[in-house]
Design a protein that fits this description.
Elements (H helix, E strand, L loop, with lengths): L10 E5 L2 H4 L21 H7 L13 H9 L14 H14 L4 E5 L2 H4 L10 H16 L3 E7 L5 H7 L5 H18 L5 E5 L9 H5 L19 H25 L4 E3 L2 E2 L2 E4 L4 H23 L5 H8 L10 H7 L5 E4 L3 E4 L33 H15 L3 E5 L17 H20 L3 E7 L19 E3 L11 E3 L1 H11 L12
Helix pairs in contact: 4-6, 8-10, 10-13, 14-15, 15-16
Bound molecules: 2-(hydroxymethyl)phenyl 6-O-phosphono-beta-D-glucopyranoside (P53).
The site of 2-(hydroxymethyl)phenyl 6-O-phosphono-beta-D-glucopyranoside (P53) has 15 residues, from loops.
Length: about 500
Amino acid sequence: MDNNVFPKDFLWGGATAANQIEGAFDEDGRGLATSDFARLVSKQERDTEGKFDEHVPHNASSSEMVADMKANPDSWHLPKRWGIDFYHTYKEDIALLAEMGFKVFRMSISWSRIFPNGDDKQPNELGLAFYDKVFDECHKHGIEPMVTLSHFDTPLHLAEEYGGFLSRHTVDAFVHYAQTVIARYQSKVKYWLTFNEINNVLSNPFTSSGVILGGAKKVSDGNPYLGHWQEKFQAVHNQMVASALTVQLAHRINPNLRVGNMLCRLENYAESTKPEDQLQVLFEDHFNWFFTDVQANGEYPYYMKRFFKENHINVEFAPGDKEALLEGTVDFITISYYMTYVMRYRGEPVPKPTGRLVSDIKNPNLELSAWGWPIDPIGFRITLNHIYDRYHLPIFISENGLGAVDQLESDGRIIDDYRIDYMRKHVEQMREAIKDGVDVFGYAWWGPIDLVSSGTSEMTKRYGMIYVDQDDYGQGTGERKRKKSFYYYKKVIQSNGAELDNDIKY
Ligand code: P53
């Protein structure tokens, strides 16, 4: 079997987000962001109360909660405010990534570091200087930075005063921010992504779009993340327009720049062979394809018309939006892939998105991670084929990874064979997809260095090949240690994906 199938210049690396690593939330003029209002939901809390699922608000989702977190920060645990201190440790951390042989480092810029209120006239030079240093450090080690402009951290001012992306004001502010940083870093950053997991608006509009839902006060007696379709689809329309305008301005600034989307890919399986279940798959697929159909094809797909009409959703297009979407299609596709979902017919005459990030129906054929996420490497090959078949654009895997509890041996080693196993199986399936003819040009492991979880703000949910000595409450020495998977990934990269066995001396 020929295993040398990865292109010569394949971009192996890892992905992070500013709000989950940087910390220093109030240093050097940074303004507050929505991520500074994400509370810790510990595993212990989930286990003892037994009522955590992805719909329990971990982020402030009402203005009352934001006000209380502002007034009494000490009575909340808000780990994204401290991250893993990357703001101060970036040199050491990038050196460790380089030691693994990284070719690409996906990271995000904190918008409120550059524009503290999101819509200031002048950028904050201290914020700009920080990213110059980070990009220089990457290039020193031959690492290509890939930069997400907005990764779950809308400036709080825009969320509070304008309802985030519900307002066109936020679109203008975003475009100004994008223009500023893309022009500044054009010689250092070739690959740009606009909005992280843009479809997250359906499940978490505050995180994704800075929208504080009107009805969010009622969070305890229901699922706040279902419904509100009008607000969610208007906000995301505005984001897709902002994204399209960004693609155009990036190309104007420098025709060599490449701009991609970012979709949390939901590959859905029918629970049974009933045609009704397969129909539900079609419905749910549409609510996932929608975002990339607009970003890659430049127009709203046919199937949304009925959904909007029968649910009385009226997405307002401002003059010029239609043209902007058409002229601002992305250069490449990126997805995060973690798991697959199971669909059962819900009997609704007019389908609605489930708004779920983890399937509530179990797939008996798949093992679950410690956080209940089904592990499905073959689904990865399937989804890569589906995406390529649909868009015919080069694909970059912007996230794939396993959150797990790591144990330290008495000598301090971390033998994370489960993580190696997860990576091996996913890289194998990616290799199969490439053999199938899918054009994949890079793979970024999520969280190559342990970082604060997006969903629960835990530190205990570790993704890294590099261990960070820090607990859920920010306690610890902050020391970095190489796990066994560090040496595994190094071998994978060195062999350009040809050597995947777990025969590692550690
Ligand atoms: P955490 C849910 C389902 C799939 C991907 O997630 C998701 C989420 C949101 O929680 O988000 C992405 O940290 C996201 C990253 C995030 C990563 O997946 O909750 O882009 O910011 O850290 C993993 O385990």
